[in-house]
Amino acid sequence: MHAVDVVAMLALLQYLVFGSLVGKARGRYGVKAPAVTGAEGFERVYRVQMNTLELLVPLLPALYGAARYWPQAYVAAAGGVYLVGRVLYYRAYVSEPSSRGLGFVLSIAPVMTLVIATLVPALLGKPLLVA
Amino acid sequence: MHAVDVVAMLALLQYLVFGSLVGKARGRYGVKAPAVTGAEGFERVYRVQMNTLELLVPLLPALYGAARYWPQAYVAAAGGVYLVGRVLYYRAYVSEPSSRGLGFVLSIAPVMTLVIATLVPALLGKPLLVA
Amino acid sequence: MHAVDVVAMLALLQYLVFGSLVGKARGRYGVKAPAVTGAEGFERVYRVQMNTLELLVPLLPALYGAARYWPQAYVAAAGGVYLVGRVLYYRAYVSEPSSRGLGFVLSIAPVMTLVIATLVPALLGKPLLVA
């Protein structure tokens, strides 16, 4: 198993699922494209997708960046925490936006960790691991 | 020719063109930054750019991910379908948002395909192709 | 030092800082999630983050793409211009949105340059540099 690829693709699939939930919420709350406001219930689902997009953009390069310097298992584990964090974030945001803190922390902390875990060895010129 | 790099960069250029069309639509419909609402015509062009952003985020890692397991020509062909799908999506959305279905399907299907085409061999531990 | 990784991770960190400024602006201007409108001061900070997201999506693949064809120092230098451009863009947008032109040009020009710098040698089949 190529654990980093697996985690990366699961993060993309999870995001695509959030996207399909936005599509369903359009129908359910009667919010027609191009509008993205007008019903609180729709906006919550939409904000989960947008926030996930906002985190995926740094997650993916940091995941593959860290995998060039650290063992694959550690990098994949950080990605696993992110995946769980996003599920908690989705559940919390949809039921009560102000309770989304834990899910947010569990999804942004791995992103920050992976960025730093790439930046520091890159600055120090640590040798690259062979893929 | 490095077909996957070519398709990836064409997808980025296409997206940058959509972005420049949003800039023009700001002037044409009198929507001043930081507003992103206020004129339906502007919002349509803006939503095309946003939706393209939403798809590019999974497309790029999945394109390069799939290229580690499959022949470059197949991966590039999936990217080519995406590029055509986006053109159809843009045309349809600007003229009538509710007709955007075909363009959307033609652009999300290659993304889904490439994600799965990376996930499955990564899970099975299929050997990586040499770049 | 692995200059391209360093620049890439600094671009991600800069973006995460912009994200945290959006969080602070929510409190300061009293804009509660899921709303993203309602106070001009909040919207300016939010638009900086969104515009940075919109540029990061092409920047990262183009940075790593160009690094496969060109010396690392040139590619990292283009990334450095982007980083400075984003700082100018943030300062300008927050004080007066209509003055954001210079920062925008300095951040989009390196992105365009890197996309073209990947596309052209990929089309011509220029040999890949060893990482």
From TrEMBL, chains A, B, C:
Keywords from the UniProt entry: Membrane, Transmembrane, Transmembrane helix
Transmembrane segments: 73-90, 102-124
One GO biological process term: leukotriene metabolic process
Compartments in which it is found: Membrane
Cellular compartments per GO CC: membrane
Top-rank taxon: Bacteria
GO molecular function terms listed in the Swiss-Prot or TrEMBL record: glutathione peroxidase activity; glutathione transferase activity
Keyword Zinc: no
Membrane-topology annotation of the record: Multi-pass membrane protein
Segments forming a coiled coil: none
Pfam families assigned to the protein according to its UniProt record, in alphabetical order: MAPEG (PF01124)
UniProt entry tagged with the keyword Hydrolase: no
Protein name: MAPEG family protein
